[in-house]
Design a protein that fits this description.
- GO terms for molecular function: cadmium ion sensor activity; DNA binding; DNA-binding transcription factor activity; lead ion binding.
- InterPro entries: ArsR-like_HTH (IPR011991), HTH_ArsR_DNA-bd_dom (IPR001845), HTH_Metal-responsive_Reg (IPR052543), WH-like_DNA-bd_sf (IPR036388), WH_DNA-bd_sf (IPR036390).
- This is ArsR family transcriptional regulator.
- Pfam families: HTH_5 (PF01022).
- The chain is an alpha+beta fold.
- The protein folds into 2 domains: 78 residues, Winged helix-like DNA-binding domain superfamily/Winged helix DNA-binding domain (Arc Repressor Mutant, subunit A, Orthogonal Bundle); 141 residues, no CATH class.
- The protein is 53% helix and 16% strand.
- The chain has 11 helices and 10 strands.
- It has a two-stranded antiparallel sheet with strand order 1-2. Strands 3-4 form a two-stranded antiparallel ribbon.
- Helix 2 crosses helix 3 and helix 3 crosses helix 4.
Amino acid sequence: METHFLESRLAGVAAAIADKTRASMLCALMDGRAWTATELSIMADVAPSTASSHLAKLMEQSLIACVQQGRHRYYRLYSSQIASALEGLMGLVGRDDAALRTKTPSNLRYARTCYDHMAGEIAVALHDALFRLNWLEGEEYAVTAHGKEQLLLLGVSAEAGSSRRRYACGCLDWSERREHLGGQLGKALLHACEEKGWMRRDLVSRELHVSASGKRRLAGIFGVAF
């Protein structure tokens, strides 16, 4: 019975993602923000009434959640696990590296959001630097004593929060085909960069704008040229 249930759930989720309009909506929600049905209809280039039926199907499979704010309803990805699964699927469908790099805008390859953490070239470089500089170690992404000191200097907590989400982990980057930093630490680092004015999210896309001062400070801290 359990196997049958899992097979049915897998088929339902796959069918929900398989539709191009719903896939467009899920990709739009990968920036980690919540959007209204009207905004998502514009992004997916469909009528608002059509968008509502697609959103209902995504909610049926627990791929997205609806948040009520006053008279408005906003939709977001159900969880960070959904975002990680979608990022992995993006890497799977774009296995032709040459074609992928040609079709992916350079600004998105450089820096973008992956739900609530950084992705793209800059994120992969930071991920590697964290291990090279001995802030993180091992396959479990353990934070070293030196890493805790340096994170606190950045204003980032070196302790896991109450969430069951892993504190630090790798997340396969679909455009770079290498790991960028995910988990609670990935989210906290992006938040710290935004608080310091080093990075700014685009209003209508997943792009991250990195300021000139941000590039200098990050290069100084992590020894990576951006």
